[in-house]
Write a structure and sequence with these properties.
Blueprint: E1 8-14, H1 15-26, E2 30-33, H2 40-51, E3 58-61, H3 65-77, E4 82-86, H4 88-93, H5 95-103, E5 109-114, H6 128-132, E6 139-142, H7 146-161, E7 169-174, E8 182-188, H8 190-197, H9 221-253, E9 260-263, E10 270-274, H10 278-291, E11 296-301, E12 303-305, H11 309-316, E13 321-326, H12 337-346, E14 354-359, H13 369-383, E15 393-394
Parallel strand pairs: 2-3, 2-4, 4-5, 5-7, 6-7, 10-11, 10-13, 13-14, 14-15
Antiparallel strand pairs: 1-8, 6-12, 9-11
Helix pairs in contact: 1-2, 1-7, 1-8, 3-5, 10-13, 11-12
Length: 399
């Protein structure tokens, strides 16, 4: 572990540009990708690094996202360090392969730049694409801004390839809001990133002809359950590995991440749980409300799969009321994916806070301080004795 903070330099670039730079610094063996808005500029910029000889990556232009994941799986099974990227319908087109990649324990790292799922057709941000893939056995790491997207990209290599994990990782951030906006953030020197990620040395590989083995076999009922159980156990171990890798990265950069971030939550009476870029707006609202004497805080999940239920319940248990804001809906359920997880986590807590779910910002709908301020007003009423609605509220819907 590093004992001194590494030299870093400030840059001004888009979130996608920062992630492409991180990929260049990682220098993966193989990248197979197909462009889709708003992910496109990641692979465009990384392709320029390949064309200019800045990396020695084998870049595979494929004809679809299904082929991108297929090529990624083959290369990863052969022992290569593999990265890819997608969004929305591209992720949906990979669907049948996502769970196979996890079941084969292939440590692929994939950026998914969050975008609404069709239909109707929409290219703007919400998180319905990755939330739809939340049960595929992948680790999900969300970032609020370009700095976190860059940092998560580098840490994800170590997390995915950890000997106790060997599972694919999605690096997630909001389309256009983060992917295309120019932000100021700190980046490491190439040599420091290279030293941090190290080399991938697979214990098992298709190209290890001295030790031939079978990959992806048909499994009868007598063993299928055990395979899924092993996947579950590996995924749950990821919480510890995420903390371990994040601590080491913090020693290198001065930026230490946890499973989630708490903002003015310790002495709060009410709290807002929100993932992604909206957490920044929520913190701004919290500062405004604090100036008025309202004790409100924010919890921003970073790791969504595996969901750190016990830890989040512990952080929220002292509150009177919690609002959970989902930038995706779980159609037909009582709320969005995050609110269902939080409500479940708090169920066994004595004197648990009331939970009000919200669905907001679908298809890129803007969410400003006023809308989040209305959530705080709702929470004050619930903390005073009003009951939350059973189903999630849609924020800002035109009826």
């Amino acid at each position: 572990m590093a004992t001194t903070i590494a030299t870093q330099k400030p840059v001004a670039m888009t979130g996608n540009g920062g992630c492409a730079l991180a990929m260049k610094q990682i220098n993966p063996d193989v990248v197979a990708a197909y462009p889709i808005t708003p992910q496109t500029t990641i692979v465009e910029e990384f392709a320029s690094y390949v064309a200019n000889g800045a990396v020695d990556t084998e870049y595979i232009n494929v004809e679809s996202e299904h082929s991108a994941m297929s090529a990624s799986m083959g290369a990863s099974a052969a022992g290569a360090r593999v990265m890819t990227a997608t969004s929305s319908q591209g992720l949906a087109y990979m669907w049948e392969l996502l769970s196979i990649a996890a079941a084969m324990r292939l440590p692929i790292v994939m950026h998914n730049v969050n975008r609404a799922l069709s239909g109707p057709l929409n290219i703007h941000c919400d998180q319905s694409d990755s939330m739809g893939a939340r049960d595929m056995g992948w680790i999900h790491l969300f970032g609020e801004n370009a700095q976190e997207a860059y940092d998560n990209t580098i840490m994800s290599i170590r997390i995915a390839e950890h000997a106790d994990i060997l599972l694919p990782v999605m690096v997630l951030y909001d389309g256009f809001i983060i992917s295309h906006a120019i932000d100021r953030f700190e980046v490491l020197e190439d040599a420091d990133v290279k030293a941090f990620v190290g080399e991938r040395i697979p214990e098992r590989a298709l190209l290890d002809t001295d030790n031939p083995m079978t990959f992806g076999p048909f499994v009868m009922p007598a063993y299928y359950t055990e395979h899924r159980y092993a996947m579950r156990n590996a995924l749950m171990k990821a919480k510890d590995v995420v903390l371990e890798v994040s601590k080491e990265y913090g020693a290198l950069t001065g930026r230490t991440y946890g499973l989630f971030e708490e903002y003015k939550l310790d002495d709060a009476e009410i709290g807002i749980v929100v993932i992604g870029s909206t957490a920044g707006t929520a913190k701004y609202v919290v500062d405004e409300m604090r100036a008025k004497g309202i004790k409100v805080g924010v919890l921003k999940p970073r790791l969504f799969r595996p969901f750190p239920a016990e830890e989040i319940a512990g952080a929220l248990s002292h509150l009177k009321a919690v609002a959970v804001m989902d930038r995706a809906d779980s159609l037909g359920a009582a709320g969005g994916p995050v609110s269902l997880e939080v409500a479940s986590a708090l169920y066994g807590v004595a004197n648990r806070p009331e939970v009000q779910g919200y669905v907001y910002g679908l298809g890129g709908r803007e969410v400003g301080p006023d809308l989040i301020g209305s959530v705080v007003e709702d929470l004050q009423k619930i903390a005073a004795g009003d009951k939350p609605t059973t189903a999630a509220k849609y924020l800002g819907v035109k009826e």
